[in-house]
Amino acid sequence: MSENSEALLELLYKKNLRSSKIILMKGENGRQLVEKELTQKNFDVSIIECYKKVFKTINNHIEVKKWRSYQINTLIVTSGEILNRLNEKINFLNKHEWLFKCKIFVAGSRLSEIAKKIGWKDIVISNYADNNNLLNIIKKHN
Questions:
Q1: Contacts within 8 Å (CB) and 24+ apart, 27-35
Q2: Cβ neighbours for 139, distance < 8 A, ≥ 6 positions apart
């Protein structure tokens, strides 16, 4: 079973936890899928936004130049926000000459679809986002 919102919902439905009180702990402005689905199916859900993602401010030009000089050719991405951030912050030329030529490992098919839409071609899907599974799939594909 994958480690994502869809798999969590599947597990909750299988365990028939409708009578349980559920606390959904999530990041500020995180995906709404679990909250929306559980509420629609009349689960007793309370939401606690317990963390906030703050992207580091970087000089994109300098960082991309550095990454290219290091000959980075593989990326590991576990969030749609990161995919979108890369797409927004890296200029057209660097995306097409370098970024989209990198192999990209993503956690789940949803991220794979986002990566395809953005422009990546060489995409490897991991069903698990933990370090051990990501390292194993990287070894298998590199």
A1: 27/51, 27/52, 27/53, 28/52, 28/53, 31/5, 33/5, 33/6, 33/9, 34/5, 34/8, 34/9
A2: none
Q: Put the strands of the sheet holding 103-107 in their side by side order.
A: 74-77, 103-107, 123-126
Element holding 25 (H helix, E strand): strand 21-27
Tell me the two tokens of residue 58: 């970087």
pLDDT digits (tens, 9 = 90+) for 77-125: 988 989 999 999 999 999 999 999 999 999 889 999 999 999 999 999 9
Distance CA 33, CA 12 (A): 13
